[in-house]
């Protein structure tokens, strides 16, 4: 796609028209003009351009109160594509997706303990191969690359400021990608991307929305009036590093008693190991065959479902800590919906129920009364859909308020 094309795409009327076709199509030119309060000629020329570029196509005819029946227009999500890259602390997933965030092709690779520059080298190597694997005549139909990474990410600069586990410090990922591939690139924090994706493609179409993930670590993405809360350096939403105990454990972030140290999977895991080592009976030992490496969240949840006392005690503790922290967020941000995701949340309805009770008991009545609290809806592709959402919203201005 040429530079000049982006400018056209970003033109307000054009994206308004494209959005209307996408959300309300099939729709006629005359209805587009009415609904957007635009002149028929403005609509006609924008539509002509959108058809020429393949974003929109004509189909059938609509009903008419007399005279010639109007031709209907529909959004064409498959004529262009994007590349989405989801980096976690353990794997990198590369995908080709259409403009409705549908995954067309994907591959996942282990990071296998790589850190710092080695992570980037590996990523570029994988990306080279992935791009080379696409049919070359379609290169101009690529609208961009969108990358999500855990950690402190400045999306405006496209820089990964800080990721402890991968040892990434001030990596200018956007510049590296744009120079290498000549394709416009977006970089965003993974949690931020997911909250936007839940809003745009998931079950939670609310402009004031908070997403919390509980798994290897704890994170959050906060959407306020349909704007992602980034903060100055992209560090807003470091939910796992809010302090819950002033005399608690020292954390690598510099704080003490961080929530992460109490309820992330790593914290739960070490509590399980300690319990086993001190001779406390638990089904987890049996389910893992006595192999500490096989103790993973799914084993914990299996023990929980079979009524294991240790698993249940730990789950209750997680609910208490997380409930308290969530009530803080509710009282701070007054969201319409709050969503829980991550390995510890999925397949753990007991945890959700306990937190729901906690919220009901402790959040301010006016803030909790209409609050929707539920499980994340996007499944395993959430980070890829998140990456796509970031790009689509920015490039096409896909409006969230319609
Ligand atoms: Zn911390």
TrEMBL record:
It holds the Pfam family ROK. Gene3D superfamilies: 3.30.420.40, Winged helix-like DNA-binding domain superfamily/Winged helix DNA-binding domain. One of its GO terms (biological process) is D-xylose metabolic process. InterPro entries: ATPase_NBD, ROK, ROK_cs, WH-like_DNA-bd_sf, WH_DNA-bd_sf. Keywords: Carbohydrate metabolism, Xylose metabolism. Belongs to the ROK (NagC/XylR) family. PANTHER family: BIFUNCTIONAL UDP-N-ACETYLGLUCOSAMINE 2-EPIMERASE_N-ACETYLMANNOSAMINE KINASE, ROK (REPRESSOR, ORF, KINASE) FAMILY. Transcriptional repressor of xylose-utilizing enzymes. This is Transcriptional regulator.
């Amino acid at each position: 796609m040429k530079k000049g094309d982006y400018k056209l795409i970003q033109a307000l009327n054009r994206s308004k028209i494209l959005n209307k076709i996408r959300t309300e199509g099939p729709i006629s030119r005359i209805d587009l003009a009415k609904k957007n309060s635009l002149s028929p000629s403005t609509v006609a020329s924008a539509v002509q351009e959108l058809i020429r570029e393949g974003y929109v196509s004509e189909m059938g005819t609509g009903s008419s109160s007399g005279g010639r029946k109007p031709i209907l227009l529909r959004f064409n999500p498959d004529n262009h594509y994007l590349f989405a890259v989801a980096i976690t602390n353990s794997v990198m997933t590369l995908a080709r997706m259409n403009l409705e965030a549908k995954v067309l092709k994907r591959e996942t690779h282990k990071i296998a303990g790589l850190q710092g520059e080695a992570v980037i080298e590996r990523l570029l190597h994988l990306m080279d191969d992935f791009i080379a694997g696409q049919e070359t005549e379609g290169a101009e139909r690529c609208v961009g690359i969108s990358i999500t990474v855990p950690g402190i990410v400045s999306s405006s600069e496209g820089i990964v400021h800080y990721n402890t586990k991968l040892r990434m410090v001030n990596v200018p990922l956007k510049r590296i990608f744009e120079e290498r591939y000549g394709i416009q690139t977006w970089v965003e924090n993974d949690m931020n991307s997911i909250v936007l994706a839940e809003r745009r493609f998931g079950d939670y179409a609310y402009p004031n929305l908070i997403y919390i993930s509980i798994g290897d670590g704890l994170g959050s993405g906060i959407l306020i009036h349909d704007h992602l809360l980034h903060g100055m350096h992209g560090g807003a939403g470091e939910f796992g590093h809010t302090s819950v105990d002033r005399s608690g454990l020292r954390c690598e972030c510099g704080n003490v008693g961080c929530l992460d140290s109490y309820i992330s999977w790593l914290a739960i895991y070490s509590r399980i190991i300690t319990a086993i080592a001190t001779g406390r009976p638990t089904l987890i030992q049996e389910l893992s065959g006595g192999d500490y490496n096989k103790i993973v969240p799914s084993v914990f949840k299996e023990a929980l479902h079979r009524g294991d006392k240790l698993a249940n005690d730990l789950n209750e503790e997680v609910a208490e800590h997380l409930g308290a922290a969530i009530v803080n967020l509710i009282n701070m941000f007054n969201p319409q919906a709050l969503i829980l995701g991550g390995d510890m949340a999925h397949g753990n309805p007991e945890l959700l129920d306990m937190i729901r009770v906690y919220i009901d008991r402790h959040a301010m009545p006016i803030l909790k009364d209409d609050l929707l609290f539920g499980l994340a809806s996007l499944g395993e592709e959430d980070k890829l859909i998140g990456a796509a959402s970031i790009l689509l919203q920015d490039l096409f201005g896909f409006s969230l308020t319609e």
